[in-house]
Amino acid sequence: MTTPRTVLVTGGNRGIGYAIAEQFVAEGHRVAVTARSGEGPEGTLTVRADVTDTASIDAAYSEVEEKLGAVEVVVANAGITRDTLMMRMSDDDFDAVVDTNLGGTFRVVKRASKGMLKARYGRIVLISSVVGLLGSAGQINYASSKAGLVGMARSITRELGARGITANVVAPGFIQTDMTASLPEDTQAEYKKRIPAGRFAEVSEVARVVTWLAGDDAAYISGAVIPVDGGLGMGH
């Protein structure tokens, strides 16, 4: 039985973040989500936050701490894309994605680490992507930001590993979402051909890996990259 914890999931109002928050609630945890708009799943506390703004993150944490207690588990999931080929990518397209996906994660985790160090306990899970290590044409900004999370988790592990804090990366592949469902049939078939499992993942399959990593059974796992991609990225 996993000990109930106070959990914060960034970008928990839709997609993978929503599913992760839902799974933590189902497992009996106290769960807050950050969102710029919209709400997290039933049973969660939704707080407004913009991960590019340190003051807004600080305010969000203060609200969670006041209502649910110190954050023991943080899942950094908030992210954006601005896909285009490198030759057409503006500095702003690059900077905005890196500042949100990599910089935002740094701000969120740095603020969480204060309480974790005090408690000598913490679980940090960074949501990356198969393209962070596989690469993807038209996603230099996104892939760079997601690859950066690996170096971040491993550096956090070296800094904080002796204090009962773990930091790991989950790297999902193609997920069954509204976005993939709206792709033309032949495009979906083309993607599935590249995936040894021959199908896209369900969001719940990613969520359960995250909750396991955050639980008592994974206390000796840190600095790891866990792919949830049906074999797409083997050999990273």
TrEMBL record:
Q: Which SUPFAM superfamilies match?
A: NAD(P)-binding Rossmann-fold domains (SSF51735)
Q: Which UniProt keywords apply?
A: Oxidoreductase
- The keyword Oxidoreductase is assigned to this record: yes
A GO MF annotation of the entry reads:
oxidoreductase activity
Matching entries from InterPro entries are given as: KR_dom, NAD(P)-bd_dom_sf, SDR, SDR_fam
Record domain Ketoreductase: where: 5-178
Family note: Belongs to the short-chain dehydrogenases/reductases (SDR) family.
Q: Can you name this protein?
A: 3-oxoacyl-[acyl-carrier-protein] reductase
Q: Which organism is it from?
A: Paramicrobacterium agarici
